[in-house]
Sequence to fold (119 residues):
Amino acid sequence: MPDSPQDLHKKILGRKGEKLVEKYLKKQGCKILERNYRTPFGEADLIVEDGDEIAFVEVKTRESFAYGTPAEAVGQDKQRRYMQIAKFYWMRTGEEPNARFDVAEVYGDGRIEYIKYAF
Fold:
């Protein structure tokens, strides 16, 4: 079944946010290791190397606060999935890095609020 116009809009908005965050992180000196990293547990939007840490980054893009802040949308279920994604990544790479879990909030005006160690 094809996506509804609303679903398609959300996908486009989400991809735009991910690209903005990728550009932001590169300017901060981070190395992008993976984009939209898919596993049996779900998908990590970005996996980046930041100094001696590997950050698993969830990007949330919102045009309004009607449903709260973008970070508030990253609940316990999403956090658990990200931890499973990280374990899967470590299993695939053969090493367990010094990891953290970040959330990037992207707003309709292009502003980014980046939360290190979000969970």
Summary: The chain has a mean pLDDT of 91.
